User: Which sequence fits this backbone?
């Protein structure tokens, strides 16, 4: 049996959170109809498709920091502060779920191979970090992702489906 690669200690907790979020987020969309992906509890609320697309975008940014390129043409739809667009302008739920699965595999691999020089470097942009380095950025973004996983879990129960944990 192969031994799992060791994650750098400074991002080990964040990596564990990302692994946990992989499954929790997938549970949030299990059994939803395409229409449910786009339902919003309020006019200014994001729908599940936007939340998952946003998390894909953020993981693609983190992959870039780690030196791996990953993109989809629709990623700009999910940037921070992006306005909701018409439903037909978004990728389908199937495309979003496939992209989530793809980026999750790429991201897990990149975290396992994260260079120490990258983790100890300051973030290139003014992004919150817990320690002034990219390692703390990955920690902050694990918190950010968990916040959105909670939103997805809420939307699932708001839509009348069972909870994702507990």
Assistant:
């Amino acid at each position: 049996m192969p031994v799992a690669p060791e994650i750098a200690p400074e991002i080990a907790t964040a990596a564990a959170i990302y692994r946990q979020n992989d499954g929790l987020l997938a549970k949030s969309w299990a059994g939803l109809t395409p229409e449910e992906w786009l339902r919003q509890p309020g006019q200014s609320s994001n729908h599940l498709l936007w939340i998952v697309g946003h998390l894909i975008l953020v993981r693609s940014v983190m992959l870039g920091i780690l030196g791996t390129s990953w993109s989809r043409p629709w990623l700009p739809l999910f940037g921070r502060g992006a306005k909701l667009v018409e439903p037909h302008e978004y990728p389908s739920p199937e495309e979003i779920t496939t992209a989530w699965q793809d980026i999750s595999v790429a991201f897990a691999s990149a975290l396992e191979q994260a260079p120490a020089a990258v983790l100890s470097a300051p973030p290139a942009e003014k992004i919150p970090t817990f320690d002034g380095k990219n390692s703390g950025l990955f920690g902050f973004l694990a918190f950010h992702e968990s916040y959105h996983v909670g939103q997805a879990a809420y939307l699932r129960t708001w839509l009348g489906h069972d909870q994702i944990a507990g």
Notes: The chain has a mean pLDDT of 94. The CA atoms of residues 48 and 110 lie 26 Å apart. The radius of gyration is 16 Å. Residues 134-158 form the longest helix (25 residues).
